[in-house]
């Protein structure tokens, strides 16, 4: 295990004196963009949105291969043709990391694929992942001006095309690294937040080590999101690109058990720590029968299948007993992944029960659509009240109650209210609980002075600083369950705060060195 944080790093790909890139905040005084797309705006507005090729639903429920094949070059360029090259690119402001969307689309249109992906990586180091799993329909694509009249540009699909093209053509070159600062940072957790903060700090010249509890890096991207939405090879390739910046990854290290945060900051010599440990503990319903055999949390089901390859049992030695009928409880992305994963394990019937109506479902529209195509049966306004077992302690049925919608709750979603006397029974062999995730408390319990909320998340300020100097946090551990791109955005914000914090320490040690502070907002 590496720990000598003060050692200077000599990364092979280092290009001294080049400033690392930074994400750009929207700038209203920026010069007007030159238009490069040949078609007149009216003609562009006539082109319908392009759709990627997808595996046929009847075929794909028999395998774990990716559902969407993405765009080929022709479709990607044809889609780029639809961009209006707006002077005020609202799509860019709606992206949590402000990817310069019009700029990368123009480069794509001009056939400069390497330039286009470089442009994206300046703001987001994980484009192959975000192009696939970002909820674009609520972010960049939701603000696209074309979408006011037609379907918005397929921004995520173009981003994915460029990332995949770069991977297939082997054209990735690591961005330049700043001169070594001679200081080191420990990152706890290798999810999208941890990978981003590591990539950003490495580019600024810090020596970064990621500590990961599991045996593989990637966090939820690896153990949660299924292969058919985000192939593990794609995650591995992005992890390799982070390592290409000189970042070290130590797997099988549980911070809070193997080492404490105070040991990292003390005898291990790290100047700062970033906690990006996510929200990996499943929440349960607290209804009778939840401890019966055949009841799984979505985390267990997805981890067994994704990380332990249970769908390849006995080639891989993790079994997954699923029965003939599976009932999944929940309405978010996790529930959708659990139910579609269950379907692929071969039961005769796969049902999803959600206590609100379809309109309130938090899952991505695209995934709900895919689930329907795959024959998942949706039962809305249905809530479980008990799980019944047989004489051997195995699930045999779930008792449910019908609901109706009342007044909106604090998040604006209409509250489900039970309808008296509406109970009914659904027979089933397997129940999967997918109603949300909570943070694992291990670091909070072993780090004195680290302020937490009543939900167990770590309290941070706008700069991702915690109550303890030198300790920063972001992503799901401070937000509760959020999104990949929010974890990425936190990683970027935290990297700037860590840089400022370490610059101050340098200045205290050797006055005059703070000018070496890498990035400014
Ligand atoms: P994580 O990705 O949770 O990574 C945390 C890492 O820290 C893990 O690898 C964990 O093993 C490690 N760790 C934990 N404790 C320790 C410790 N003590 N010591 C060392 N390492 C530790 N978001 C989207 O945007 N789009 C989607 O389609 C989507 N689908 C999802 C599907 C599922 C099934 C799930 C569970 C989540 C989904 N999300 C989705 C949410 C998204 O994945 C998370 O918001 C995001 O991964 C959070 O990133 P993170 O870096 O904060 O943490
Ligand atoms: Fe859109 Fe996500 Fe890409 Fe930002 S990172 S442009 S939100 S797909």
How would you describe this structure to a colleague?
By secondary structure, this protein is of the alpha/beta class. The protein has three domains: 4-169, Alpha-helical ferredoxin (Fumarate Reductase Iron-sulfur Protein, Chain B, domain 2), CATH 1.10.1060.10; 184-280 and 439-516, FAD/NAD(P)-binding domain (3-Layer(bba) Sandwich); 282-437, 3-Layer(bba) Sandwich (FAD/NAD(P)-binding domain). It contains 19 helices and 16 strands. It has helices at 41-44, 57-60, 73-80, 90-94, 101-109, 113-123, 127-133, 140-143, 155-169, 192-204, 220-223, 232-243, 261-265, 298-307, 333-344, 365-373, 442-446, 476-479, 484-509; strands at residues 184-188, 207-211, 248-250, 272-275, 281-282, 295-297, 325-329, 349-353, 377-379, 382-389, 395-408, 414-418, 424-427, 430-433, 437-438, 471-473. The strands form four sheets. It has a five-stranded parallel beta sheet. A hairpin with a 5-residue loop joins strand 10 and strand 11 (395-408). The longest helix has 26 residues, at 484-509. Mean pLDDT is 91; it is low at 1-27. Bound molecules: flavin-adenine dinucleotide and iron/sulfur cluster (SF4). Iron/sulfur cluster binds next to helix 9.
């Amino acid at each position: 295990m590496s720990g000598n944080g003060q050692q200077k790093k000599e990364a092979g790909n280092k290009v001294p004196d080049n400033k690392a890139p930074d994400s750009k905040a929207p700038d209203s005084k920026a010069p007007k963009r030159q238009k490069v797309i040949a078609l007149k705006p009216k003609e562009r507005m006539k082109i319908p949105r392009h759709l990627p090729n997808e595996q046929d639903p009847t075929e794909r429920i028999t395998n774990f291969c990716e559902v969407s094949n993405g765009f080929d070059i022709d479709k990607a360029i044809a889609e780029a043709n639809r961009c209006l090259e707006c002077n005020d690119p609202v799509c860019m402001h709606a992206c949590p990391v402000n990817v310069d969307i019009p700029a990368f689309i123009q480069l794509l249109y001009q056939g400069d694929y390497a330039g286009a992906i470089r442009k994206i990586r300046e703001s987001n180091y994980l484009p192959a992942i975000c192009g696939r799993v970002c909820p674009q329909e609520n972010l960049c694509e939701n603000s696209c001006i074309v979408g006011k009249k037609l379907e918005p540009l397929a921004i995520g699909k173009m981003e994915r095309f460029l990332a995949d093209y770069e991977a297939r053509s082997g054209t990735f070159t690591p961005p330049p690294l700043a001169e070594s600062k001679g200081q080191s940072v420990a990152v706890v957790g290798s999810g999208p937040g941890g990978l981003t903060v590591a990539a950003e700090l490495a580019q600024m010249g810090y020596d970064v080590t990621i500590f990961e509890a599991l045996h593989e890096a990637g966090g939820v991207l690896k153990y949660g999101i299924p292969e058919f939405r985000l192939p593990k090879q794609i995650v591995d390739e992005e992890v390799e690109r982070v390592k290409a910046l000189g970042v070290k990854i130590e797997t099988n290290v549980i911070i809070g058990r193997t080492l404490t945060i105070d040991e990292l900051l003390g005898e291990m010599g790290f100047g700062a720590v970033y906690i990006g440990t996510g929200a990996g503990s499943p929440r349960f319903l607290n209804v009778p029968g939840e401890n019966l055999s055949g009841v799984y949390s979505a985390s267990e089901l997805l981890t067994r299948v994704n990380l332990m390859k249970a769908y390849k049992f006995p080639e891989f030695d993790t079994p997954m007993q699923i029965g003939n009928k599976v009932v999944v409880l929940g309405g978010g992305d996790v529930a959708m992944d659990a139910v579609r994963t269950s379907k692929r394990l071969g039961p005769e019937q796969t049902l999803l029960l959600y206590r609100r109506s379809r309109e309130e479902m938090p899952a991505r529209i695209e995934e709900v659509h895919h689930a329907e195509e795959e024959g998942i049966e949706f039962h809305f306004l249905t809530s479980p009240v008990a799980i019944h077992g047989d004489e051997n302690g195995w699930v045999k049925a779930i008792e449910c109650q019908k609901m109706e919608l009342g007044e909106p709750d604090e998040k604006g979603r209409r509250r489900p209210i039970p309808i008296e006397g509406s109970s009914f029974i659904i027979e089933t062999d397997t129940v999967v609980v997918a109603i949300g995730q909570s943070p694992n408390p291990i670091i909070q319990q072993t780090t004195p002075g680290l302020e937490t909320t009543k939900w167990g998340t770590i309290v941070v300020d706008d700069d991702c600083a915690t109550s303890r100097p030198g300790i920063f946090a972001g992503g799901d551990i401070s937000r509760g369950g959020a999104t990949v791109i929010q974890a990425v955005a936190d990683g970027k914000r935290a990297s700037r705060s860590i840089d400022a914090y370490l610059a101050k320490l340098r200045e205290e040690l050797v006055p005059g060195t703070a000018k070496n502070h890498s990035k400014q907002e």
